[in-house]
Write a structure and sequence with these properties.
Keywords: Heme, Iron, Metal-binding, Monooxygenase, Oxidoreductase, Signal. Helices cover 52% and strands 10% of the residues. The chain is mainly α. The longest helix is centred in the middle third of the chain and has 32 residues, at 246-277. The termini are far apart. The chain binds protoporphyrin IX containing FE (HEM).
Length: 456
């Protein structure tokens, strides 16, 4: 083990996060955000370094904890995404010919279509219609497990607007497709297999592999149907590209399906929890929504006039950032990052969680304070990185922000809500383990009450 985890001499000049607390954190299934706050950030602060070395996925990686240094390396043309480990079932599911994992010419081709498609329209009416379906289920209110609703809402949002297929997750949460997806995600998320990908070679999980292949086949069938039933969605735009192969279509459907709903679901779970936990913030946001939007259907221009609602969403995504780290990058040449030279082919990660919680960049970072986004400094503005940085940052930033704005503004018009006194999240919002290092709060019970003068 000592040889396996010993630091290669060419990296020994970079401060190393102590290995034992890290291994303990991985093996105990600690979520990424806790590891960053409990182990990585305190170590970085003690060693006064924004660049640290840590052992992860069976190798040593450099983590960048500063937005300025991060931007510089993410924009460097010599930097590319590290090839994903072939054995990992997660990548068997997504495939590797998609906008998320591809590089070079293939990435440019896929990225162009994805960007064009996501910027052609912002589907505010579809988000509003899904919000109404959700309200039908919420009825007059009561205690509900909100994180289930957010997953169903975002799954239908990405299904109808990006993939062009209605999974009907809001109406039928126990539908066979949704069930199978959750089963697969649960099976492939086993922490030992995530942190030591080669385990899959030593102790292969044939049943899980078959389950993954079965789901991939379902996506392939869904695409075949889509060819005969085209619409106003990203996959239909992809059909316009004569160079796109069947495998590329399939891999892009899967990756946008996965990247497109868990992330925003986590963000919406946190946002509603925080508004419930801070009633004064909820009241102020509701007043703004009623003043600007009144009884009207949500429109883009409404949100341009809601600085407080936008500040609440930005602070919620900072305080509990939905995505914690980027996937590792490598460069073909030595890179200067901060005061260190990083040798070629060393995996480098932008640690967004650390950047969003660094006391060097934010005043009182562990305080939920939406007001900070009404008057951000230049450093804070540049350090708001929940969607990543550089050319590979999230192409669906605007899509996701409107999805959150529409649902939350309509929810504020229709309901008031509180967090039950026995919530497990009091004091600290707890995330489920995620193989993508996402922040996915679980068991977020919320007590909703329909407003008597509701305008919906
Ligand atoms: C709160 C919501 C979201 C967050 C926080 C988020 C975050 C991110 C981050 C941090 C990256 C960069 C990853 C890296 O550099 O390794 C990324 C990339 C990506 N995201 Fe999102 N995302 C969100 C929503 C979405 C949605 C709704 C979609 C699709 C509809 C989507 C599709 C993608 C794709 C395709 C990429 C890969 C881009 C590329 O490599 O060129 N994301 N996202």
């Amino acid at each position: 083990i000592r040889r396996w985890v010993s630091v290669p001499p060419e990296l020994s000049h970079i401060p190393q996060v102590p290995i034992l607390p890290l291994l303990h954190s991985y093996l105990s299934g600690e979520v990424e955000e806790q590891r960053v706050k409990r182990v990585i950030l305190p170590f970085a602060q003690k060693s006064r370094s924004n660049v640290v070395l840590l052992f992860c996925f069976g190798e040593w990686m450099v983590h960048v904890l500063d937005a300025k240094d991060g931007k510089r390396f993410m924009e460097d043309r010599a930097v590319r995404k590290q090839a994903v480990p072939e054995t990992m079932l997660l990548w068997r599911l997504t495939g590797r010919q998609n906008v998320f994992t591809a590089e070079g010419e293939m990435w440019r081709r896929h990225a162009k279509i994805v960007h064009d498609a996501l910027h052609r329209t912002t589907p505010i009416e579809q988000f509003a219609s899904l919000a109404r379906s959700m309200f039908e289920m919420l009825g007059t209110g009561g205690r509900i497990r909100w994180n289930d609703y957010t997953h169903r809402f975002t799954l239908d949002a990405v299904g109808t607007t990006v993939i062009g297929h209605d999974f009907k997750a809001l109406l039928k949460p126990d539908g066979p497709f949704v069930q199978k997806y959750h089963e697969v995600m649960k099976a492939i998320s086993s922490p030992p297999y995530i942190f030591i990908p080669s385990l899959e070679r030593w102790l292969p999980r044939t049943k899980v592999r078959a389950l993954v292949d079965d789901l991939v086949e379902d996506f392939r069938l869904l695409l075949a149907q889509k060819r005969d039933d085209q619409g106003n969605d990203m996959i239909t735009y992809m059909f316009e590209d004569p160079e796109m192969t069947e495998t590329e279509f399939r891999d892009n459907v899967i990756v946008t399906f996965m990247g497109g709903h868990d992330t925003t679901a986590g963000a919406l779970s946190t946002l509603v929890y925080l508004l419930g936990a801070y009633p004064e913030v909820q009241t102020r946001a509701r007043e703004e929504v009623l003043r600007i939007m009144g009884k009207e259907e949500p429109r883009m221009e409404h949100y341009a006039k809601m600085p407080y609602l936008n500040a609440v969403i930005r602070e919620s995504m900072r305080y509990k950032n939905p995505s914690n780290v980027t996937i590792p990058r490598v460069a073909s040449i030595p890179l200067q990052i901060g005061s260190y030279v990083v040798p070629p082919l060393t995996p480098i990660v932008l640690n967004m969680c650390a950047i969003l919680h660094s006391s060097n960049l934010w005043s009182d970072p562990e305080k939920f304070e939406p007001g900070r986004f009404l008057k951000t400094s230049k450093v804070e503005e540049g350090s708001w990185v929940p969607f990543g940085l550089g050319p590979r940052q999230c192409p669906a930033r605007t899509f996701s922000l409107y999805e959150q704005r529409v649902l939350i503004s309509m929810l504020l018009r229709k309901y008031r809500w509180t967090v039950p006194t026995d919530s497990i999240h009091h004091g600290y919002i707890k995330n489920a383990f995620s193989p993508f290092a996402l922040s996915l709060p679980y068991d977020v019970y919320i007590d909703f009450t329909r407003l008597t003068n509701s305008t919906e």
